[in-house]
Specification:
alpha+beta; 2 domains; four-stranded antiparallel sheet; 304 residues; Umud Fragment, subunit A; 4 helices; nine-stranded antiparallel sheet; 18 strands
Length: 304
């Protein structure tokens, strides 16, 4: 849906801009010549009527700057997204409306998504919006866990990462698996299908953030099997990233479908600009899609 909206926005900007430009640079000078050649006894109203833009040009003249600004803002600076699922709880909740920094990982042309300016690359711990590799018209949001060259291991709900040793760089513990420590915060504040979830702080090689997991739920067995590696272990290829949801037992992520190419990255989630609760029962008079509450306390910068 976002792809179609972006395409429509580009086409509308081009159409209104071309209509306005052709009139301004081609037809308006001709109208001015005609108005200047009128006899002196012709009143000002008649002269203005000759200079007057057509209804189409007048509408394009008014609309073009507005949609042009929206196109620039949305394509190169910030784009709004709504969180539709709980895969990133507790960091992001269903009903959060976020802003995604589009230029964080390079300035790309709209629609064709060709990178024209390099500004940075995804970093471990970033909450990223990306085009789902198996269905590029769909946007997903997850957290970067593995960078190119990393080996990621997830067994028995324990995460470990092995970073590559790079010549000339002093990387502590490179070449060996480092167990990612967690510190339990609470149990039962969040639930899934009636089962209490455990909330914990996770130190992702120095990046602190919160996760949820269900200690009573067995791991799903259908992990993505990368050729040449063991089940539950993945080597991140060059130019690709391994991503996971913070809600570890309720997230369809790289563990199940593979890696995210860098060209699929849309941007970095940086700000919650509003947050709604949707707790209405189906039998209520008011439709369930109407918000039941605004969570103003969630408005602000998205932490790690």
């Amino acid at each position: 849906m976002a792809v179609y909206f972006e395409l429509i926005l580009v086409l509308a900007t081009l159409f209104t801009g071309v209509v306005w430009a052709v009139d301004h640079f081609v037809f308006l000078p001709k109208r001015k010549v005609i108005a200047a050649g009128l006899p002196e006894n012709v009143d000002d109203e008649a002269r203005e009527s000759i200079l007057q833009e057509s209804a189409l040009v007048e509408n394009c003249h008014g609309i073009f700057p507005v949609i042009g600004f929206v196109l620039i803002l949305r394509s190169f600076l910030y784009e709004p997204f709504q969180i539709p699922s709980g895969s990133m709880m507790p960091t992001l909740l269903i009903g959060d409306f976020i802003l995604v920094e589009k230029y964080a990982y390079g300035v790309k042309l709209p629609v064709i998504r060709t990178k024209v300016i390099e500004t940075g690359r995804p970093q471990r711990g970033d909450s990223v919006v990306f085009k789902y590799p198996l269905e590029p018209t769909v946007d997903y949001i997850k957290r970067v866990v593995g960078e190119p060259g990393d080996t990621v291991r997830y067994l028995n709900k324990k995460l470990s990462i092995k970073t590559p040793c790079i010549d000339g760089q002093n990387i502590e513990n490179c070449g060996t698996f480092q167990k990612i420590d967690i510190d339990i915060v609470s149990q039962g504040d969040f639930q899934a299908h009636g089962y209490p979830l455990t909330e914990a702080n996770e130190s992702l090689l120095g990046i602190e953030h919160k996760i949820l997991f269900n200690p009573s739920q067995a791991p799903r067995p259908e992990y993505f099997n990368q050729t040449g590696t063991r089940i539950g272990e993945w080597i991140v290829p060059e130019g690709e990233y391994f991503v996971m949801g913070d809600n570890r037992d309720n997230s369809l992520d790289s563990r199940y479908w593979g890696f995210v190419p860098e060209e699929n990255m849309v941007g970095k989630a940086v700000f919650i600009w509003t947050s709604f609760e949707f707790n209405r029962a189906p039998e209520d008079i008011i439709p369930t899609w109407v918000p039941s509450n605004i969570r103003t306390e969630r408005i602000g910068k998205i932490g790690q």
